């Protein structure tokens, strides 16, 4: 208890700086606006006679990843109410796309009064936490209210495990409030158990990211965009790039252009506040077009870089490309990679840099199936792109291998729902009968 009090005091001191980072205006980033009160637990009440499922997904990536689960859950139990919380405004923007099946609220800050205010307004029957977003006061307050807490799609890298071990009392404080932990892989489960989570609380259900479903609309939009970009030219995409990577990607593209002068790079920075900077960087050496400024009927044949400066269109942009390099993987230990399953689900050859520790199990699985190519440098990226472009049959085969890897690993959503549904199945049945 003393540890939690000390943590709360430190959080109170740090909170003004955290809020400034969350609320300050940045070009291209949506604003929290008048909904800022929700972060303090002052949230609109939910008109619901039975407690909804509360699913927390921090930002855009987690929201996208949990979307197939929400859709499946709602399809199986249409009368069940779902509330999804995000911390960031960009996550909120993505969550609003699920408005027909799930209501969005901002996640309360990790102060007991804020979390209590949220619970009193929403009265959730269960909390599902996407991946490993564990906050001491949130877990304590929710558990004290008698609400089961399940961590879904849980992952714990060896690095994170070792860090938690250095502050074991803090992790013990977190773990005691968890009802169950549904892990992506056996290695994740072993690490949670090693840190002291009771073995009977830990299960392996698989990664729900493998259950990604691509809508026909996404494919149609992607193909329409490809028609605009040019069907008779090589197109490759560098997705979710970070500061320090764009220069390397542009250098690689410069090499690609030597072999294929009509090649086009779709460059998509990870964070919207970097759109302008990356555009200015690119146009120094390349004929660069922004998606938000493109005339959607044509594109200059001499265009060399297409900047993806919109949010929520990553799948469309990847579908329009022949090859995908996944960013966040060229910066040493800083980021640890991003989700390479999206291009795989679209049947694209997948490239990644050498730093992918956040997705090490996925990469190892894909490597064992020859479904991904590791490119440690700009030179390696350009060589791989040119090799695939020069050999169409190899490009198609590489894309097929990545897609087959996805198919073989599906089923995590079904396993996850089966694991947490018993905690409120009786409530669902009762709600359904009453509504009838």
Explain what the structure shows.
45% of the residues lie in helices and 14% in strands. The protein has 436 residues and is of the alpha/beta class. It has two domains: 32-206 and 411-428, 3-Deoxy-D-manno-octulosonic-acid transferase, N-terminal domain (Rossmann fold, 3-Layer(aba) Sandwich), CATH 3.40.50; 216-408, Rossmann fold, CATH 3.40.50.2000. A seven-stranded parallel sheet has the order 3-2-1-4-5-6-7, with helices on both faces. The chain has a seven-stranded parallel sheet with strand order 10-11-9-8-12-13-14. The termini are far apart.
Largest sheet: 7 strands, parallel
Number of domains: 2
Q: What's the CATH topology label of the largest domain?
A: Rossmann fold
Tell me the name of the CATH homologous superfamily of the largest domain. Answer: 3-Deoxy-D-manno-octulosonic-acid transferase, N-terminal domain
Overall geometric form: globular
Q: Please, what is the average pLDDT? A: 91
Number of helices: 18
Class of the largest domain in CATH? Alpha Beta
Radius of gyration: 23 Å
Highlighted features:
436 residues, Rossmann fold, 7-stranded parallel β-sheet, 18 helices, 14 strands, 14% strand, disordered C terminus
Helix and strand arrangement:
Elements: H1 2-23, E1 53-56, H2 60-76, E2 82-86, H3 89-95, E3 103-106, H4 112-122, E4 126-130, H5 136-144, E5 149-154, H6 158-166, H7 168-175, E6 180-183, H8 186-194, E7 202-204, H9 216-229, E8 235-241, H10 246-259, E9 264-269, H11 275-282, E10 288-290, E11 305-307, H12 314-319, E12 323-326, H13 341-345, E13 350-352, H14 360-368, E14 373-374, H15 378-390, H16 392-408, H17 412-420, H18 425-435
Parallel strand pairs: 1-2, 1-4, 2-3, 4-5, 5-6, 6-7, 8-9, 8-12, 9-11, 10-11, 12-13, 13-14
Helix pairs in contact: 2-3, 4-5, 10-15
């Amino acid at each position: 208890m003393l540890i939690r009090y000390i943590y709360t005091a430190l959080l109170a001191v740090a909170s003004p700086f955290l809020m400034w980072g969350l609320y300050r205006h940045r070009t291209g980033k949506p604003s929290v606006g008048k909904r800022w009160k929700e972060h303090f637990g002052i949230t609109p009440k939910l008109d619901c006679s039975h407690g909804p499922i509360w699913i927390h997904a921090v930002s855009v990536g987690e929201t996208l990843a949990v979307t197939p689960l929400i859709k499946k859950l709602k399809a199986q139990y249409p009368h069940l109410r779902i509330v999804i919380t995000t911390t960031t405004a960009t996550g909120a923007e993505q969550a609003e796309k699920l408005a027909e099946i799930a209501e969005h609220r901002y996640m309360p800050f990790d102060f007991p009064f804020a979390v209590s205010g949220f619970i009193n307004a929403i009265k959730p029957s269960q909390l599902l936490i996407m991946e490993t977003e564990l906050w001491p006061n949130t877990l304590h307050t929710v558990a004290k209210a008698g609400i089961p807490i399940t961590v879904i799609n849980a992952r714990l890298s060896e690095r994170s495990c070792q860090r938690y071990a250095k502050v074991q009392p803090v992790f013990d404080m977190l773990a005691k409030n968890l009802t169950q932990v549904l892990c992506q892989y056996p290695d994740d489960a072993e690490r949670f158990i090693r840190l002291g989570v009771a073995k009977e609380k830990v299960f392996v259900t698989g990664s729900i990211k493998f259950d990604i479903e691509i809508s026909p609309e996404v494919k149609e939009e992607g193909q329409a965009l490809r028609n605009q970009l040019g069907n008779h030219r090589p197109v490759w995409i560098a997705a979710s790039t970070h500061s320090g990577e764009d220069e390397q990607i542009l250098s690689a593209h410069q090499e690609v252009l030597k072999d294929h002068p009509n090649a086009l790079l779709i460059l998509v920075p990870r964070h919207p506040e970097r759109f302008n900077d990356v555009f200015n960087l690119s146009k120094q050496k390349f004929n660069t077009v922004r998606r938000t400024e493109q005339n959607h009927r044509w594109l200059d044949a001499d265009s060399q870089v297409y900047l993806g400066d919109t949010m929520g269109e990553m799948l469309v942009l990847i579908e329009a490309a022949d090859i995908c390099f996944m960013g966040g993987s060229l910066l040493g230990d800083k980021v640890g990679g991003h989700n390479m399953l999206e291009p795989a689900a679209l049947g694209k050859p997948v490239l990644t840099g050498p730093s992918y520790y956040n997705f090490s199990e996925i990469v190892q699985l894909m490597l064992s199936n020859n479904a991904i190519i590791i490119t440690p440098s700009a030179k390696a990226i350009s060589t791989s792109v040119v090799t695939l472009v020069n050999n169409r049959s190899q490009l198609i085969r590489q894309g097929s291998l990545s897609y087959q890897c996805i198919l073989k690993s599906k089923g995590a959503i079904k396993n996850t729902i089966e694991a947490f549904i018993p905690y409120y199945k009786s409530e669902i049945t009762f709600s359904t009968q009453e509504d009838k």
